[in-house]
Amino acid sequence: MVFFYGVMKMTKDSVLSILLTAGECVSGESMSRELGISRAAVNAAVQTLRQEGYVISSSTRTGYTLASSPDKLRDGEMAARLGGRAEKVVCLDSVGSTNDYLKLLAKDGAPEGTVVAANTQTAGRGRMGRSFLSPENEGVYLSILLRPDCAPESVPQLTAWVAVAMRRALESSCGVSPGIKWVNDLVLGGRKLGGILTEMAAEGESGHIEYIVAGIGINVGQTAFPEELSAMATSLYLETGKHFSRCALACAMIRELDALTAAFPLEKAAYLEDYRAACVTLGREVTFPAGGQTRSARAEGIDEDFGLSVRFADGHAETLRSGEVSVRGLYGYV
Ligand code: BTN
To answer: How many whole angstroms from 94 Cα to the centroid of ligand 1?
Structure first.
């Protein structure tokens, strides 16, 4: 049964990928030839896709045409957009957390670049032990596996690189340029558009990095947020009034993450320059916990290692390397 379901899913996704790639009418016969399956199996896949919301017209003379697709992340859509790269992308309808799922694959030896994406997460996780709300078909929830040959101390930096990569993906795919709230929140209209959770496994004695999982959540289609989040969270739809394809955005994110993987750590200067230009924390008053107190300072700059340089009222300066700051003027903090 599981095997049959798997074969059916693969067939559906292959048919979908062919229809999407063609962008025009494709005959049942050519699909059956290309996939090495019967015409009846092609027809069954088309029927199932229709039940899932794909509008596919058919004519006995010419074949099948895909008229419209529901906005779903799925293997066939990824394959049509990413070609061979999609072989290392796993699309799930629902999962606890894409980070947790990918960590299991990483322990099983999955290669660098493996991506897990989901249409919803039932236990999406954020930084500092928080949860990340992941409603069905409204955001992009995606994790990528990295196996960089670098020291564990470089990992906080990598998170900042991912923020730059995600900003670039949003610019190319949606035409919006979010700000970055130090360290790694994406910000639009003074509210949080998305976040990044980077997790690492290192060998006990040598400290050598076994793998890093970078998970990104971006709010795309939400029309509202629960009351407790409404002052601090936003979505692409709420900020622009436009509907964006989650699949197109997910693919742009994967392309930028691949570019990051190739660039890390040598092309630091370019990522640092973009980070500094996008960082909306700079020039503002920030508060953060330190030594059991809440301290206030002014954010002045981003240093060479993506640390946040702050200056206190008495003129004393410090650089924060990790943690989180509240920023006056963002997320409803006045
Ligand atoms: C944060 O803003 O605190 C980080 C949010 C990270 C959310 C993403 S969604 C995909 C991946 N899976 C998770 O469980 N978390 C990350």
So the answer is: 15
User: CB of 178 closer than 6 A to ligand 1?
Assistant: no
Q: How many angstroms does the Cα of residue 126 sit away from the middle of ligand 1?
A: 5
Residue nearest to atom 9 of ligand 1 (CA): 217
pTM, entire model? 0.91
pLDDT at 9: 61
Q: Does ligand 1 lie within 6 Å of residue 195's CB atom?
A: yes
Q: Which ligand 1 atom minimizes the distance to the CA of 123? A: 14
- φ/ψ of 254, rounded to 5, equals -65, -40
What pLDDT sits at residue 4?
41
Q: How many residues does the chain have?
A: 334
The residue nearest atom 15 of ligand 1, judged by CA position, is 125
Is residue 3 very low, low, confident or very high in pLDDT (cuts 50, 70, 90)? very low
Closest by Cα among 304, 301, 297, 227 to 265? 304
Q: Is the pLDDT of residue 315 over 80?
A: yes
pLDDT digits (tens, 9 = 90+) for 30-59: 999 999 999 999 999 999 999 988 999 998
Q: What is the pLDDT of residue 8?
A: 56
d(CA 184, CA 197): 8
Long-range contacts of 305-309 (CB under 8 A, 24+ apart): 305/157, 306/156, 306/157, 306/160, 306/183, 306/272, 306/275, 308/182, 308/183, 308/281
CA of 124 to the centre of ligand 1 (A): 6
